[in-house]
Design goal:
The chain is α/β, with parallel strands linked by helices and 334 residues long. A hairpin with a 6-residue loop joins strand 3 and strand 4. Helix 10 crosses helix 12 and helix 13 packs antiparallel against helix 15.
């Protein structure tokens, strides 16, 4: 099998396309900030995942704007977006769709009625409240962009993104996501409290007689073109080597770091390397640069790694958190 060579330089045509996309992304962020105050890092990571063609998991306490952020992204990016509120009694057919008997007399036949997964942006709210059976309904959709019902395979609209939310505190009545599904999320984006100035702007803007609304900036076709453009951006061999070094440093079987060997039960797989390769290109473009650097990989690594690693009980006994381990992993790159 032939391997496509790395792009190492940017042509004039590509430069003009990148400049135009960068300007449009700036407009998109301005529109998002009409509704979402602060949360710059979370917004940039969401746009990074979309530009990279990936899914992402939003982690945060109730009331921090996770649902609002997803709806705003859908509007600004021109996606057909739908929402599924996950509960323990939610069934796979409630997401994928089901076959119903339609017609009269001898003309009756089974017809497939599409579920909410047939959209361009699916929000799975509180995904860990759905049962494992229902969670697994998204596995094929997230990886293959298809669903199979009654032996028939149906293609999903493109682009297709799943944006799930979780509350990290509540454990009762929840079902932890399996590792196979977590790995299908390109990024885990943690949303924290706004700072004082952002919260002041938010309460003034949302409790008055008039509330700002975001406007559409992209179309779905333009997002697909942007995703193709991201894959054409040049990347240096040193950065590729750094990505491989970083990901392998998080695997207990391959890591040179003693704490990883001792405390990590399982580490990131090849999807983490793929995610970093795409995400750092999108990050560079969001910041108005044509080529990503190794610093980009180190900066975005926590969002790529934190849901792809797990600790032994020994780490908790010694007071080590996953964030501490990831900091050591990122510090080993150079």
């Amino acid at each position: 099998m032939s391997v496509q060579p790395l792009a190492t330089e940017i042509t004039g045509d590509l430069e003009s396309k990148v400049s135009a996309l960068s300007a449009k992304l700036s407009e998109a962020r301005q529109n998002i900030h009409k509704v979402i105050f602060g949360q710059d890092q979370a917004i940039n990571l969401c746009l990074t995942a979309i530009l990279s063609g990936g899914h992402f998991l939003l982690m945060g306490l109730p009331g921090l704007g996770k649902t609002k952020l997803v709806g705003t992204l859908g509007t600004v990016m021109g996606f057909e977006h739908k929402r599924v509120q996950c509960t323990p009694d939610l069934m796979p057919a409630d997401i994928i769709g089901s076959e119903i008997l339609d017609g009269e007399g001898n003309n009756r036949s089974f017809q497939f009625v599409k579920g909410p997964v047939f959209c361009q942006l699916l929000m799975a709210d509180e995904i860990n409240r759905a049962s494992p059976r229902t969670q697994s309904a998204l596995l094929q959709a997230m990886q293959e962009y298809q669903v199979t019902v009654g032996g028939v395979t149906y293609d999903l609209p493109r682009p297709f993104h799943v944006m799930a939310t979780q509350n990290p505190l509540e454990q009762e009545g929840t079902y932890p996501l399996p590792e196979a599904q977590l790995d299908r999320f390109m990024l885990q984006i943690d949303i924290g409290y706004p700072d004082r100035d952002d919260e002041r702007r938010m309460i003034l803007a949302t409790t008055g007689a008039h509330e700002e609304k975001a406007s559409q900036v992209f179309t779905a076709a333009e997002v697909l073109e942007a995703q193709r453009l991201i894959r054409q951006l040049p990347i240096g061999q040193k950065v590729v080597d750094g990505i491989l070094q970083l990901v392998q440093a998080g695997r207990p079987e391959q890591s040179p770091i003693a704490a990883v060997k001792k405390h990590v039960s399982w580490g990131p797989g090849p999807r983490a390397s793929q995610a970093l390769m795409l995400a750092i290109r999108a990050k560079a473009l969001l910041e108005g640069r044509y080529m990503p650097s190794l610093d980009d990989a180190v900066e975005i690594a926590p969002a790529v790694l934190r849901h792809r690693m797990a600790l032994h009980f020994s780490a908790r006994a010694e007071g080590l958190s996953l964030a501490d381990i990831i900091t050591q992993v990122c510090g080993s790159v150079g």
